Amino acid sequence: MKAFVQMETDSRLESSLWVDSRRCAAVLTGWHFKWTEVDKRSRDKNSVSVPVAEVVGVEEGKVEVLPHKTVEDTDKDFTVFYVKRSSSPGSCGLLWRLGRTQFSCPSRVLRDQWIKNLRIAVKTHTPLRPHRLLVFINPFGGKKKARQIFHSLVAPLFELAGISTHVIVTERANQARDHLLKKDLTGFDGVVCVGGDGMFSEVLHGAIGRTQQEAGACENDPGVTLQPCPLHIGIIPAGSTDCVCYATVGVIDPVTSALHIIIGDSQPLDVCSVHHGFALVRYSVSLLGYGFYGDVLVESEKHRWMGPLRYDYSGSMVFLSNRSYTGTVQYLPADPLLSSPRDNTRCLSGCSVCSRSTERLFPNSSDSGSLYSSYSEHFHNDLEGEWVTVEGRFKCVSLTCMSSSCARSPMGLSPSAHLADGTGDLVLVWDTNPLNFLKFLYRHTSTEDQFDLPFVEVHRVKAVRFCLAGDTKEEEIRVLSDEMDIEAGGHVRSGSRNGSQQHLAEKATGMMTTSEEKTVTPFTCCLCCKKPSAVSVWNCDGEILPFTEISCKIHGQLVRLYARGIEDKAAIHHCSQERDTCNKTCMQGRSLP
Ligand SMILES: CCCCCCCCCCCCC/C=C/[C@@H](O)[C@H](COP(=O)(O)O)NC(=O)CCCCC
Ligand SMILES: Nc1ncnc2c1ncn2[C@@H]1O[C@H](COP(=O)(O)OP(=O)(O)O)[C@@H](O)[C@H]1O
Ligand SMILES: [Ca+2]
Fold first, then answer.
1. How far apart are CA 171 and CA 139, in angstroms?
2. Which intervals hold domain DAGKc (predicted)?
3. DSSP-based three-state secondary structure for 397
C-alpha cells in the first residue's frame, strides 16, 4: 500500500484513505474535510467536501447508528458522521440528514492521527456546540408524538455527538417555564423544547425571565432594555403549527433540527414584549393577532381533540362569522432606509439586513464582556421617533417579528420580515367584504402578494399600541383583566389553554361555557343572527391574552436559537471548486463565513 502523509502543527492532515475499496486523496484543512476518489479510469473525480463545522462525530472502527448502533472494531478504520443535505419538496428550506462514511487507513497510527485531528478541528471551529442540554418534552403537543420523536430520532443523534441531556417530560402547562425561572441551570449550554409554538413560548418566557431576574432588569417596565439570553434554545418540532421552527429552519423535520442543535448553529431572534399598562403580559415572536387570528384561537381551543386540523376547521368557522372590530392602532415606524416589508426580499441564512442589525445592536461585540453594555446603550433611545395613529374597523391587526412562515403559509404572514433586524411588521386589514378577505387569506398560501390589496396595509415598526375605540364597552374588558390571575413579574399564571384563559376568552367573545350557562353558545355572528361581540382577543403565539389594550416593543436579537435561518435552495449547488474559494452554499456543505 502506497500512501503519503503530511502532518502539521495544527489539525491539517493529508493522506490516502480507502472508502470501501476505492482509494481517495483525503485532505483536512482548517475548515474542510475533503476526499476525492483517485481513479485514473474515471474522468469525473468523485469528490466530497464537508465543512468541519458540520461534522457530527468521528468514531473508531466501522460504525452504524441506524437503526441501532453497531461497531465493528477494527484498528485501521474510522467513521465520520456529518450533515448531508437533500431538498424537501413542499418546504422552503433543505432537509438535513446524517451522512456517514467509513474510512480505512494503511496503519493504526495514521487512523489515530485522523481521528485526533478531525476532533481537534471540530472543537476549534465550532465553539457553540452544546455539551449538555436541558430537554423539555410536551407529550400532548400536536399529534402527541413528541416523546417518540425525541427518543427514536433525536436522542441517538445527541448520543453520537457526545451531548448529554437532562430530559423532562412535562406533566402540566408552564412546567418548563417555571423550571427555567427557578431551578439551577448550571452546566447547561442550552434548552431544547420538543413540542409546538406554545411549548417554545414557555421556554422563551422562562429563558428571558431568568436572564432578567439575574440581571436585575424589571420586565414589567414597558421601556426597559432587556438583557439578551445567554442560553441557546433548540426546537424539535412536534406541535401543530410549528411556525418558529419553520421560519428559522425552513422545514419541519426533527432530524434537521437535531443536527442544527448538535453543530451549535446560532440564529438570533427578535422578541416582542407585550404590556398592559405597567405590567408585562407576554412575549411574542411569531403572531400577535387581534380579530380574525384571536377568534380562530378561541374557536380552536374547543376542538383541540382534532389535533392540528383544529386550526383549519376553526379558520373556516371564523371566516364565515364575518366579524370586524373597531380600535385604535398606534405605531412607531422603523427606519425606512434600512428595509421595507414590501421590498420583496427574503430573510435567508446569512441575511445582510440582520447582519447589519447585529453590528448596530452590538457595536463592540468583538470585545469580550461588552455585549450587554453595548446593547443597553443602543436601546437607550430606541423608542424615539414620531408615532402614527390609525383608527377604524379592522378584520384583523397582526404584528410579527419574523415572516411567520409555516406549512399553511410557506411565505408567511409577512414574507419579507426579518428574524433579527430589531423590527416587526404590523399588518392592518381593514373591514372588507368576505370575498376580499378570503382573497387576502388565500394569498398566504401562494406567492401572490397579500399586501397588494386596497384594504391591507403593512408597516415595519419598532413599537405598537392598541386600544379600543371609544364606543366599545370598556367594562367588558375590565372584567377580563380583573379575573385574570397575574403573578408578580407579570406572568399569567397557569396559562394552560384548556383552563382559565379559555374561560376568559370565551367570555370576551360571548361563548360562555360555565356551569351557570350550560348551553354552549356558538359564534355570535351574523350567520346565526346572534348579537356580534364588540371585542375580540389577542392571539399571542397561540395563547389568548387577558387584555385587549396593549403596548408592544420589539427587542432586537433578544434570544438565540440553534438554527441558521432558511438556506437558499437556489444558491445550493454541487461544487467542484476548493471549498475555501466557493462563496455559495454547496450541497455537501456551507460556504465559509
Ligand atoms: C383560504 C386559506 C386560508 C389560510 C390562511 C393562512 C394564514 C396562516 C398564517 C399562519 C401564521 C401562523 C403564525 C403562528 C402562530 C402560532 O404561534 C399559533 C400556535 O401554534 P401551536 O402552538 O402550534 O398550536 N398558531 C395559530 O395561532 C394558528 C393560526 C392559524 C390561522 C388559520
Ligand atoms: N404536560 C402538559 N399538559 C398540558 N399542557 C401542556 C403540557 N406541557 C405543555 N403544555 C402546554 O400545551 C400547550 C400546547 O403545546 P404545544 O407543544 O405548543 O402544542 P400545539 O402546537 O399542538 O399547540 C402549550 O401552551 C404548553 O404550555
Ligand atoms: Ca424582525
1. 8
2. 128-277
3. strand
Test site for ligand 2: of 496, 540, 544, most ligand atoms within 8 A of the Cβ: 496
The residues of the chain that CATH labels 2.30.29.30 are 5-126
**212 Cβ closer than 6 Å to some ligand 2 atom:** no
Does the C-beta of 87 come closer than 6 Å to ligand 1? no
- 487 pLDDT exceeds 70? no
Q: Which tens digits make up the pLDDT trace of 39-75?
A: 766 666 688 999 999 999 999 999 988 777 788 878 9
| Neighbouring residues of the ion ligand 3, judged by CB less than 5 Å | 270, 401, 418, 421, 423
Neighbouring CB atoms inside 10 A of 222's CB total: 20
In terms of residues, how long is the chain? Answer: 593
Within 13 Å of residue 483, how many CA atoms lie on the same side as its CB?
Answer: 18
Candidates 137, 138, 314, 545: which one to mutate for ligand 2, based on the most atoms within 8 Å of Cβ? 138
Whether ligand 1 lies within 6 angstroms of the CB of 229 is answered as no
Q: Which of 81-95, 295-309, 359-373 has the highest mean pLDDT?
A: 295-309
**313-367 tens-digit pLDDT:** 999 999 999 999 999 999 999 999 999 999 999 999 999 999 999 988 887 665 4
More confident residue, 528 or 542: 542
What phi and psi values does residue 355 have, to the nearest 5 degrees? -65, -40
Please tell me the residue having the least CA distance from ligand 2 atom 11.
173
Enumerate the active-site residues.
Answer: 197
Each residue's pLDDT tens digit, 559-580: 999 999 999 877 665 444 444 4
pTM of the model: 0.86
CA of 241 to the centre of ligand 1 (A): 6
**E strands, 277-387, where?**
279-284, 288-291, 325-333
Nearest residue to 427 via CA among 390, 464, 398, 448:
398
CATH 2.60.200.40 segments of the chain: 146-561
The rounded Å distance from CA 560 to ligand 3 centre is 13
- Whether ligand 2 lies within 6 angstroms of the CB of 173 is answered as yes
What CATH number should be reported for the domain whose range is 5-126?
A: 2.30.29.30
pLDDT of residue 366: 57
